[in-house]
Amino acid sequence: MLHHATLTEHAPTGGSLIESQIQRHREYQCASIAIPFTKAANPDKRHEVEDGAARIPFAHRIPDVIRNHFVAMCAEYVGTVLFLYFALGGTQVANNIPTSSGESVKQVGSNPEQLQYIALCFGFSLAVNAWVFFRISGGLFNPAVTFGMCLIGALPWVRGVLLFVVQILGGMTAAALVSCMFPGQLDVQTTLGGGTTVVQGLFIEMILTAELVFTIFMLAAEKHRGTFIAPVGIGLALFVAELVGVYFTGGSLNPARSFGPAVVNHNFHGYHWIYWVGPLLGAIVASGFYKFIKILEYETVNPDQDTDKSKDERPQTSQSFEGRHSYEDFAHNETKSVPENDAHGALQPPSSTQIGTATGNGHAGDGVRKLNKAPVTRLERTCCTHIHASA
Questions:
Q1: Which N-terminal stretch is annotated as signal sequence (predicted)?
Q2: Is 0.85 topped by the overall pTM?
Q3: Distance of CA 305 to the CA centre of its chain
Q4: I want to staple 370 with a disulfide (CB 3.0 to 4.6 A). Which of 53, 62, 272, 337 is the partner?
Q5: Domain count within the chain
Q6: Is residue 45 included in any domain, yes or no?
Q7: 271: domain range?
């Protein structure tokens, strides 16, 4: 992978911005394949983590794959327990705290203040714990989210199955802790309310979960300059979904959230299945739409979102790309595509000839494409047009 500094240093006049944009797009495109689920995402830096006292005794004898799965499972279990402990604990408080009349909410019925309190507990708890565990296991805490991440290829299926299991266990553990630590009967089960039918509840759970899962795809699975605050947006997405769903379905969006309290209370409603099928269908819907916009290369619609340059600073073209040459014609004139290695096997920085004149017409975009050995994208075609116009 070429570095941004290398591209801008050797790029021809007028092309540095476009080339850096292509490179940033490449980095995000590669990073969006999977969240770094190992303790050292960069293999070149693994020794910095594993040397010396970084490992526990005898850990070096455990294969990396098994160790990484184990670490991810531990983190996901603890994270799910913490997330649901505070969320379910807040729900227990909201359902049992006396109102101004001295009666509990359960006796007088739901009210907007109670629903907002529950929604805040879920949204804030997810935002905090997802931020904490994001770099270890991904901070999923939800079997439906895990299923969706596997569908888009951001999570291996083996890891997904393992996380699925520990998330269910985490939901049961959190419900048991709330039941033991809080006085009174555990009153956090998801039930249909407000005259909601089973079919309506199924589709409500599906749509709300699809919104949450798609938010996770775009903020966490897709890498961009705002990824570091993705947990905030994800927590807000759950908060908004809970505001809508708590009154009608209990706002599950998470099979582990509904299954845990049902196990602790030994009470499964006849429609409990909607809290499994609905969220999983929502994950499928979100995954389908995500793949649809990826096929259409949505990155080309607003290509400058991750740059510091305004539209006025970008090179403009007065002619359409079709009126010049086809992008493939540029590739046929390529003279040298891949930089050679030195005597020690290290990759040498590309020269201005390799980048700026990788084709006979001197179009930098083709050099970047050939050096990265990646297929042509619409973003690169657009960038090459800008470079050709500004040259």
A1: none
A2: no
A3: 18
A4: 337
A5: 2
A6: no
A7: 64-300
